[in-house]
Every structure is written in structure tokens, then in C-alpha cells.
Amino acid sequence: MTYQNLTIGGTFDHFHEGHEAMLTKAFQVGDTVWLGITTDEFVKRIESKRLPFPNYLEPFATRKTVVETFLVQHKFSAQAKIVPITDRFGTTLTDQKLETIVVSPETEPVAREINQLRIEKGWKPLQIILVPWVLAQDKSPINSIRIRAGEISRTGELFSVAASWGRRNLPDVLRQKLQQPLGELFSLENYDEAGPAARQPQFRSKLSRSSFKYLKDYRDQTGGASTGAPRRASPATLLNFLAESVLAPSVQLTGLPVMVIAVGDAVTQSLIRAGFIPQVSVIDFHIARKKVFQILADFKFPTVAVTNTIENTAGTLSAKGFTTLKELITGAKYPAVLEVQGEEDLLTLFAILAAPLESLVIYGQPGEGIVAVSVTEAKKWEIKGYIDQFVV
Fold it and tell me: Start and end of every Cytidyltransferase-like domain (predicted)?
């Protein structure tokens, strides 16, 4: 059976397989499909009250383009009438000719509310077509919230390490590969005074002095001092500040970071000295394998909301290490510190895998400078590929 006028609506953020299933069903049974996409104003007004990372939903233009691309690929465009919607009812209470609505388990209650309101107007209720969840690898629904949080891919694969993974070793085949920067390297080579023996301390002092420009921009944007809570500080500002103090900027990021995660004692201390407190810091009390700090207080964090400790032997990673770091990242209590008994270097991989999309992971590149990694789905796939090669 087909319907002459069918409606379906959504935000369609980080377009995923659940969206594909919904739209495919709609166009299979609808002659004309009135496809509502929530406006940016609606998202800011309503979604920001209930969603994590609301500022990181894709803009309307991006979401609309992705939907249109899907329609073209599946030859649905001729049936589609795309309309911006500014509330959860869309056009269902203004367009009497609509016959049916396609919903997910999440939006089915809204459809029932719509029908009650249509009956009160003397209109026919809509036929409700329920499309089941599309499940991720862990049998939980794929949704945009989980994708933005960095938990899953758009096709439902998990960005995580199972408890059964245990402890594994870095394979020889990856040792040279992981000595290369995972993100953008900001080199110290252009410091005239920074010879090989002086690079680490020069990096720390230069970073501290140059950070004040970044801090001023950060405070101007947030309206207050850095507290370590996730706030709207520009990653471009952060990277530009690093670039100005180290090398000409070669990467311009857009958007705003969900959080900053620092891996390594020198990077963490330098940011603290500058007045910027990472949301999550991973430390082992050593710099260049020399013990520099005795206790956490030596870093001079102005405040620490939560700490945890793990053991991590050099050249290894463990499922417990991933779980512990993930809990600090998602725990919403910042600043958080992970103290590592052993060596923290490889935990950079876990930091990237566990972080929400649009986060920044910053770590030191021994003898060279600092690396800033913008966390994207593509970067998570790259890191997952490395982790999958670790051996028992």
C-alpha cells in the first residue's frame, strides 16, 4: 500500500544507518514525501536543553545537503518535498492533506500527540508507520548522540576496547609508525636558541609565555576564567596560538572543541602554567623518562575534580586503561587527571578513541615539539586500526 502524502521529520545530524532506514521506508510507501528537517533555530532552542554536545550538531545547510545526496543516490528526489521545520510537529497541524507519518520508537509518542491534536481540529489522524531501531554492534540503537560522543561510527561499529581485550603489546611493525605525529606537529626547529639539548625546557617556557594570547581569547569567548569545564573555546585559536609560538600555522580548524585532553607531563604543566586547564590530563610524573614530579600537587593544578590511577607498562595497553580513561572523559567532572604508574605515551591512542568528536588531544613529540589531534570519525578509524594490531 502507498500513500499520496506522507510526512517524516528529523534533525538528521551526523547522518547514519538509522536515518537511511527511516527514509527508505518513507519513500517506499509514499508517493509524495514531505521531509521536514529541523532548523538551526529549533536545534538551539529545544535540542540544546536535552542533548549532550548540542553546539556540535551539524548546521542545517550541511544536514540538508547530506539528505539530498542520499535521495539522489537512491533515486528518491522526484518524490521529495523538503521543508524546514521549527517545532516538533512540523507541518502536521497545518497541512490537512497529510495521510501518514513515518516514525522511530523515539518519535512515536510525538506522532500520537499529533493525532490527538488533529482529532481536536476535526481532521483525520495520521496512519503511523513505525520503523524499528537500527542497532549498533553492541545491540543498542545507532543515534546521533552516540556518534557525537565518539562511541560509535555512523554504521554502528564501536570505538571502544572490550574487557576481553585484556593487556596487549605494541607490535614491532607499529613502532616506527607511531613515532610519527598522529596529528599536526608544531615543531621547535625555528627557535634559534633551542638546540637539541634545550628543546624540552625551551618548549615549556615558550609555550607558557605564548599561551596568554590564547587564554585571553578563551576568556573573552567564555566570559570567565578557564575552569576546565567543557566550554566554547575555538580549536583554531588553540592551534593558532601553538603555531605562533612554534611554527607558522598550516592547519585551520573550524568549529569549537568539546574538550581538550592533554597526554604527557610537559604538555600538561605548560598549559597549567599558562592558565589553561585541560578537561582531562594523563600524566606519569616523568618527562623524557626522567622523574620530574613527585606528587600531583607539583603540577599546581588550581583544582582537580577527580583522579584515578592505572598501571601501564611501557609498550603496552590494557582494556582497564581504556575503561578508566573513558570514564574520566565522560564523567562530566573536570578537571580530571589520570595518574599512570608506568608509561603514559601509548594512552594517546586511547584518548583519541574515547574522546567525543570535535575534541582536541594534545601531546608532546619527544625532541620535536607538540602534536595537536583534532578528533574526527576518520581519525578514530585510523586509531582503531592501530589498536587492532596490538598483540597478546
Answer: 8-149
Percentage of the chain beyond pLDDT 70 is: 79
Nearest-angstrom CA–CA distance, 71 and 200: 53
Are 192 and 302 contained in the same domain? Answer: yes
Per-residue pLDDT tens digits for 80-118: 999 999 999 999 999 999 999 999 999 999 999 999 999
So what's the pLDDT on residue 340?
A: 97
pLDDT in tens, 231-246: 333 434 444 454 444 3
Residue 227 has pLDDT above 50, yes or no: no
* C-alpha distances in Å from residue 321, one per residue of 10, 197, 234, 238: 37, 33, 29, 28
Same domain for 106 and 212, yes or no, is no
Distance of CA 289 to the CA centre of its chain: 31
154 domain residue, yes or no:
no
Domain boundaries, position 47: 3-148
Residue 181 lies inside a defined structural domain of this protein: yes
Burial of 220 (0-12, 13-18, 19+ CB in 10 A): exposed
Are 376 and 341 part of one and the same domain? yes
Residue owning grid cell 583534532: 374
60 and 127, same domain (yes or no): yes
Closest C-alpha among 219, 221, 191, 211 to residue 262: 211
